[in-house]
Amino acid sequence: MTPALELSGITKSFDGFMALSAVDFAVSYGEVHALLGENGAGKSSLMNVAAGLYAPDEGHIRIDGRPVAIRGPLDAKANSVGMVHQHFKLVRPFNALENILLSDPRGSYAGGLREIASEVARHCEALGFEVDVDKPVGTLSIAEQQRIEILKALVGGARILILDEPTAVLSDQESDRLLKTIRSIAAQGAAVVLVTHKLGEVIAHADRVTVMRGGKTVATADPRAVSVPDLTQMIVGSNVHEVPSPSQKIGEQLLTVTDLRGARADGHVALTGTTFTVRAGEIYGIAGVGGNGQSELAEILMGVRKPLSGRIDLAGVDDVSGEGPQERRARGLAFIPADRHTWGLAGALSIADNFAVAGVLSGKYGTPIRVDGAAIRAATRKAVEAFDVQGVRSPGQKAALLSGGNAQKLVIAREFSGSPRVVLAHSPSRGLDVRASAAVHERLRSARDAGAGVLLISEDLDEILLLADRVGVMNRGRIAAEFFSPVDRHAVGRALVHHG
Amino acid sequence: MASRADTGVSGPPPAPRQRGGFGRFNLEIRQHVSLLRQTVVLLAGLVIGLAATAIVLIAAGVGLGAIYDEFVVSIFSSSMSVSAVLVQAAPLLVVGLSAVVAFRVRFWNIGIEGQMIFGSIFATFIAIHDVGPESVRLPLMFVAAAIGGMLWIVVPALLKLRLGINEIISTLLLNYVAFNFLLYLLYGPWKDPKSAFPHSEQYEAFERLPLVGWENITWALPIALILAVAIWWLLNVSRFGFYARFVDANPKMAAAVGVPIVMLTLSSALLSGAISGVGGFVVSAGIEGRMTQSFFLGYTFSGILIAFLARSNALIAILVAVFVGVLFVAGQSLQVFYQIPGSMVQLIQAIIVISVAASEFFVRHRVHWVRGAG
Fold this sequence. Notes:
The complex is a heterodimer of chains A (500) and B (374). With 500 residues, chain A is α/β, with parallel strands linked by helices. Chain A has 17 helices and 19 strands. In chain A, the strands form four sheets. Chain A has a six-stranded mixed sheet with strand order 6-7-8-3-9-10, sandwiched between helices. In chain A, strands 15-16-17-13-18-19 form a six-stranded mixed sheet, with helices on both faces. Chain A has a four-stranded antiparallel sheet with strand order 2-1-4-5, covered by helices on one side. Chain B folds into two domains: 34-60 and 340-368, no CATH class; 88-339, ABC transporter involved in vitamin B12 uptake, BtuC (Orthogonal Bundle).
C-alpha cells in the first residue's frame, strides 16, 4: 500500500547543529503512527518539515506516492497535511470559527463563518466533540483549544493529521478522551501521526511506532510486539526505570498553609481556602486537574502574588504571607516553577548569571561594588558538572539555548545551591523526557532524604504516586482529600474529578 | 461512528500543487555570535548608512569631494574642529548615559528634555540668587541640577510603579510642562535684566565650567567621561547592574528569585533623571553660559539614539557620542557652506540609525539558500 505521507532522507541543520540527518518516515491511511523519542530527538523538527514550517536541507516528501514540494503551511494544507502544534497557533481574542476562517479563507466573512459553522458542527457530531465556538479561544480551556486546532485541520481538508505532543498539556481523563478521538479519526480513513514521549500512550493507542534518537530514526515497529524495556532502550539508548522509595524519617512541620484564599489577575477566586502541612523529610504531593488553583497556590507561595487571606508558616516562622520572595528564600524556600521560561530562567542572560543570581542575592560572589565574575564562572562550572547539565559549551552561553531538561537541571542546580529547607516543585518534569524526569525526581528525593520538606504540585498523577509520601487532592481551590502512602490510585482519581 | 463522508477526513486525494525545483532563502537564528561578527556586521550597516547619506547629499547638490572634505578632512585636520566635535559630544554623552541607565531596566524615559530643563532651572536658581560662596558655586549648581532632573522624573516613576501608567506618555508630556514653565521664567521673573531678552542673565565666570586648557574644551567633557566610566561600572561590574540585567531580561523571573525590582526601577529612573539634569547644567554652564529657551532641543532623540547605537553600554556610548558630534558639526558646516536645510542633518541621523538597527537582524540571524526539497 502506498503510504499517505512519506519522508525520505530528510536532513535539516540549524546553524551547524544537525537536527535531522537522513531521516525516513512513512504513515499510511487508517493508522495511528506514533513518533517516539526524547526531547531534542528531532520529532517535532521532522513533523515541522512535513507541515511546511521548516525547509529541509536535503530529502524528499511524497504524498500518496507523488513527490511534492512543501514550501509553507499553505502548501502543506493544499496537500492535505494538517498539524496540531504543541504550542497552539490560535488568535486568542478570536472565537473558534474566526480562527478556522483565518486559516481557511472563504468568499465572504459572514458567509465563510456560516459555512465553517456547519462544517464544524458536522465534525463535532462525528467525533463527539463539545466546543464553544462563540467565546474567544483565549478564555477556553487548553483541551478545548486543542479540539479547535484539530477541527481547524479537519475543516481545512487534512487527511494526514500530525499531533505534536498533544497530551503533554492534558490531564489523565482529557488525554484518554483525546486518544480515543484520534483512534476514531484514523478509523475513518485518515493518517494520524502522534508525536509523544509517553510510552503508555504508544502501547495503548498506536498501530505502529517509529523511534527517533539524536536526529535519526532508530526503528519502526509494532508497539505490541515490543516490550516496554526494549522500547525504553531504543528511546534513550539505555534502560531507565524508576521505583518508589518512601521516606525514612519524617520530622517537624516546615510549611503550614492555613485557609489560604487567592485570586487570579482577572479577579476570579481560584484558591478558596487551602489548608495543608509539609513536614521535614517528606514529599507532599498535590494532585489535581489543571486549573483548580495550583498555579495560584504556587505563585502565592513563591511570594509573587498576594493572597486574599489566610496564613503561611514557613520553617518555624509564623505567617510569612506579607514577605517578598527574597525574605522567604532567605528562610530556606526554594522554587522549581512549572513554566521555567517565565519564572525560572532569564533566557537572554548567560548560564552563569542564571545560576549565580540566587547566590548574589544572598551576598555571595563579591561585594555590592564588584560582582566576582571569575568566582561565578568557577561555581557555575562545578554546578553544571554536579547536576549533569548537558550542552553547556561555556558558562557565558545564553540559558535560552539549553534544552528543556537541561534548563530544568540548571534551575534545580541554582535552587539547591543554598541547601533549602522547603522545596516547592510545580510540575517539575513537564515537557521532560524519561531520563531527564528521572534525574529531576532523584534530586527531589535526595533533598527530602537530607531533611527538607518537598511540596510537589503536579497534574501528572503518575509522578505524584511515584514520589509522594502523602497526597492531597486539589479540587476547586482547596485540598478536598488527603491520602497516605501507599496511595490507592483509584481513590485519588475519584477525588480528582469529584464535584461535591 | 459516523460515515466517512461525514467527517471529511477521507475521500479522493486532491491533486498536489507542483512547482519547479527552485530553492528559497532559509532564515535561522544564530546560536552563537562572535564579537568579530557583531563588529563587522555593525560596521557594514554603518557603511551602508553613510553611503545612503552620501546619495542624499549628492542629490541635494553637494559634491562627493565636498562631503569627504566636510566629514573627514576638515573635521580631523584641525584641532579647532576636533574640539568643536568634542564640545558637542560632551552633553550628547551625558544624555546618552541618562537613556542607557533608564533603558537597562526597561524604563523608557522620553522626558530627557524636561529633566534637562529642570536641571538647568535649579542650577540657574543657584546662580542668580548667589547661593553659597563663590568657590563652591559650581559644585552647588551641579548638585542642584541633578536634584532638579531627578525631581522631574519622580512622578512618572511612581505612576509607573504604583499604578502601572506608561512612562513613555508621562515623561513625554512632562516635557511640555517643563518647557512652558521655562518660558514663563524666561519671559517673566528671570528675564535678562541687562538686555531684556528672554533668556536668563549671564552666569558669572565662576558659575561657568572652566576651560581645561586645550582649545575651547571645558570641564563638561571630563565630567561626561567620568560619568560614563561610573555608569559603566555601575551597570557592568556592580551588583546593581547584575540585578538590572535580570529586570531587563525577565522581570517575572527576577521577581521570583527575589531581585528587588521596584527599588532597581525607581533608583534607575531617578538616576536617569539626575543625569539628564546634569546634562542641562552641562549645556547651560558649559556651552551657553546662561539658560536659554532652546538649549535642550533635540537631546531626547539624541540620547535615545546614542543609547540604542551603543547597545546600552556606557563605554561604547562615548564613541557613539563623538560620532554623533561629528555628524552634528559636519551637518552645521554643510548647512552654512552648501545651503543644505537643517532638517537634512536630522535626515542623515535617521538614515544611519535605521541602517545600524537593521544590521541587528543580520547579527542574530543566518540567511542561507537551500535548493527546494521534493
